[in-house]
Amino acid sequence: MTDTPLPGPTTAGPAGAPASPRPGVDTPDHRGRTGLDRAGRDLARNPGVRVRDVELTSRGWHVLRRTTFDYRRRDGRWETQTRETYDRGNGAVVLPYDTGRGVVLLSRQFRYPAYVNGHPDGMLIEAAAGLLDEDDPVTAIRREAAEELGVTLGPLTHVLDAYMSPGSVTERLHFFAGPYTPAARTGAGGGLEEEGEDIEVLELPFAEALAMTRDGRITDGKTVLLLQWAALDGPFAPKPDAAAVRTG
């Protein structure tokens, strides 16, 4: 959905006339949201940061804000800074794996931002992921795994949570992994066509997927992180030598 520029925080009409309604601020926008300019105004967890103003600069499905705040430097001096933040909500990502057959389930889809920024064709290989919307992380990632990969997941391991682009994007991503078997592939996957998704499901040998992170065939950050976790501490990590454990 295309972002729609919004007027500034005070959109006044002719002299003496009331200010125009501002969708997403004091009247509902297309998603029924109001108060979108309030985010961050009540933050007080860091005494070295004082939020002065929050301006809603554009809104589509997600929201772009310009925030002005006072920041106390390490030497004690205060300075005023302005930052733009892109708020798309939080998300979750999962790596389904089958240790018996030594494979993982990934996806391939077109990503225009990567395409316009140097990726040869924009077709990225990724772990299945999606926004939480109104769900908790576990519920959301089970939904995304079914929609994108056609797999019904059982027990999940929570790997970690991380901010993937904290300089400008507010999103916190919840990382999961979980076992699957051929019998758990209960659907075709491919994503939701009405949301513009056209996702190819890839079942790859884990060793090949890991090699792809080294030679540049996999360049998606969340996927690289999960595959490296799987190799170092997860289901494909080397098992301790029993003899060494007994004599160590």
Summarize the helices and strands and which ones pair or pack.
Layout: E1 4-5, E2 49-59, E3 63-72, E4 78-87, E5 91-98, E6 103-110, H1 112-116, E7 123-126, E8 128-131, H2 137-149, E9 157-163, E10 172-179, E11 200-205, H3 206-215, H4 221-232, H5 242-247
Parallel strand pairs: 5-10
Antiparallel strand pairs: 1-2, 2-3, 3-4, 5-6, 5-8, 6-7, 6-11, 9-10
Helix pairs in contact: 3-4
List keywords for this structure.
single chain; disordered N terminus; globular; 7-stranded mixed β-sheet; 5 helices; 19% helix; 248 residues; 4-stranded antiparallel β-sheet
**Number of helical segments?**
5
Radius of gyration: 23 Å
Following the backbone from N to C, one meets helices and strands in this order, namely EEEEEEHEEHEEEHHH
Number of strands: 11
Sequence stretches where pLDDT stays below 50 over 5 or more residues:
1-11
The percent range for strand residues is 25-35%
Instruction: Describe the global form.
Output: globular
The biggest beta sheet is recorded as: 7 strands, mixed
Determine the structural class based on helices, strands and strand pairing: alpha+beta
Tell me, rounded to a whole number, the average pLDDT. Answer: 90
**Helix content bin:** 10-25%
Distance between the termini: 59 Å
Describe the protein's architecture and organization.
- With 248 residues, this protein is an alpha+beta fold.
- The protein is built from 5 helices and 11 strands, in the order E-E-E-E-E-E-H-E-E-H-E-E-E-H-H-H.
- The strands form 2 sheets. Strands 5, 6, 7, 8, 9, 10 and 11 form a 7-stranded mixed β-sheet that branches. A 4-stranded antiparallel β-sheet has the order 1-2-3-4, with no helix packed on it.
- Strand 5 and strand 6 (103-110) form a beta hairpin.
- Helix 3 (206-215) crosses helix 4 (221-232).
- The longest helix has 13 residues, at 137-149.
